[in-house]
Amino acid sequence: MSDPAGAPAPPPRPAPTLRSHQWYGADGVRSFSHRARTRQLGYLPEEHLGRPVIAVLNTWSDINPCHVHLRDRAQAVKRGVWQAGGFPLEFPVATLSETFQKPTPMLYRNLLAMETEELLRSYPVDGAVLMGGCDKSTPALLMGAATVDLPAVFVPAGPMLPGHWRDQILGSGTDMWRYWDDHRAGLIGDDELAELEHGLARSPGTCMTMGTAATLTAAAEALGVTLPGASSIPAVDSGHERMAAACGRRIVALVREDLRPSAILTRPAYEDAVATVLALGGSTNAVIHLIAMAGRSGVPLTLDDFDRIARRVPVLADLRPGGRFLMEDFHFAGGLPAFLTRIADVLHLDRPTVAGPTLRDQLARARVHDDEVIRPRGRPVADEGGVAVLRGNLCPDGAVIKHIAAEPRLLRHTGPAVVFPDYRTLRATIDDPSLGITADHVLVLQNAGPLGGPGMPEYGMLPIPAQLLERGVRDMVRLSDARMSGTSYGACVLHIAPESAVGGPLALVRDGDPITLDVPARRLTLEVPEDELARRRAAWRPPPERFQRGYGALYSEQVTQADTGCDFAFLARPGHTPDPYTG
Ligand code: FES
């Protein structure tokens, strides 16, 4: 029986060059079944056969305030796909909510990367639009897409509107930490805190400081997997919907051009993303994620690359948490294309992106409209990139510090350690005056790394003891194998590798041990004789196994250390994965 709307046989067949042809266009019972089932979905054959099938991977969820608008925005993407002659199909995928998912969405970044890879491979997909932005969702989606290597465009969720409280402009995250410390110090009361709850996050969208979300979406734009300027468009701006529709149109063209991530995510692209992140004064989390993403692209990227590039680029974005402005200011100052013109001399301008022939073409018309937000080279926020890589006997495989967000007096500091064996002990005892903690002590948190956390929770901005907050102390040297929120700040040494849970030197630190941080020399030193450390090492025992089953057990078996990106070993290694049709 023909469709009531009238669909005369024979139906058109997909172009044989399309991957989806394997599902729909071949003769045989499977294609017959797939066409029948697509009618069951409500489509006539001429609506979809012969068109590139575009998967719209959507991380929308009711629980994720950073992505809550993406359900609507997917409609704009699909509109664009239809306009360009494609066939859009939306796939709901895991949402990684930095706010709500515990112990940390970092535990699940690789799960979303696996889901992305396997969905794209196992369904009749010719290209993909990836919708994300809250911290780990950006690297997860791109890791999966890079691995399966089908044409892909990333739609950043966009920053939320600036926060407001009384006469203050608030930055999400950053001002939450700051005012919480003020509350602990007794400077503001419960009423003020209740008012702040109303003003910290005013709209859907990602954190509007240069936190992890803004850093990673800017990195995605610098890599060339978004449309130009996409990463800073506010989530609720009408321009965001227009950008989403444009991504829908563009992905269809990318499928026809057969422009795949492997042509875009090259070593020059990753070097440019590193330079961008450092010149933005971006989140330390980008170090881990870019290393993991590069690994999926077959590009070796190391901590030393970050340190080398950091010495070549100044910090030019005056954005919180280190600076004054927010993402909406950055957007109206010209956004990332304008920003990249200021570091164009260190970029590889002749590489391809999803938007057009080269990065150089995209920057040709870009202009900076506000020299306070995006500083000229002669007036940088900091002379060197915002992240320093440390080495030393306490971090043989490296550690990082966002030194531009620390009090300068602490960048060369020696002090006695106060050791917390885990985060629970830290929370329970940090305000105990009997510990006798002074502003010169070095706070040390163990067992908060990839395995110990698990998932490297963002515990790295260890709280300042309340009695020191009351005396006006706002920064101390703090060390851990954890990560730190991109909206956090302070002299926090992070990502110490190897971590303490696998017996790294951090596990050997005892109360009172002198520790020297020397950021200019890029050194972190435990000032304890080697023979004493050898005795402690021989006596060290690993913490008990945390997961005996389930995803946690898989994670524990497979996760790599921070310096190699915390990917799963079995996902990061090279090798062939058969396509379901072509093998
Ligand atoms: Fe989602 Fe900050 S909590 S981006």
Characterization of the model:
The protein has 583 residues and is an alpha/beta fold. The chain has four domains: 1-50, no CATH class; 51-161 and 203-363, Response regulator (Rossmann fold); 164-199, no CATH class; 388-539, IlvD/EDD C-terminal domain-like (Glucose Oxidase, domain 1, 3-Layer(bba) Sandwich). Helix content is 35%, strand content 11%. It has helices spanning 21-24, 29-40, 45-48, 70-83, 109-122, 137-148, 174-184, 190-199, 212-223, 238-257, 261-264, 267-280, 285-296, 303-310, 327-332, 335-342, 359-363, 423-429, 466-469, 530-539, 550-558, 569-572, and strands at residues 53-58, 87-92, 127-132, 152-156, 163-165, 168-170, 388-390, 399-401, 412-420, 442-445, 477-480, 492-494, 514-518, 523-526. The strands form three sheets. An eight-stranded mixed beta sheet has the order 7-8-12-11-10-9-13-14. Strand 9 (412-420), helix 18 and strand 10 form a beta-alpha-beta unit. Helix 5 runs parallel beside helix 6 (137-148), helix 9 (212-223) runs antiparallel to helix 12 (267-280) and helix 9 (212-223) runs parallel beside helix 13. The protein is globular and about 75 Å long. FE2/S2 (inorganic) cluster (FES) binds next to loops. FE2/S2 (inorganic) cluster binds next to loops.
> Percent of residues in beta strands?
5-15%
CATH architectural grouping of the largest domain: 3-Layer(aba) Sandwich
Helix content: 25-40%
- Structural domain tally: 4
Total E-strand runs: 14
Uncertain residue ranges: 1-9
What's the CATH class of the largest domain, please? Answer: Alpha Beta
Tell me the overall shape: globular
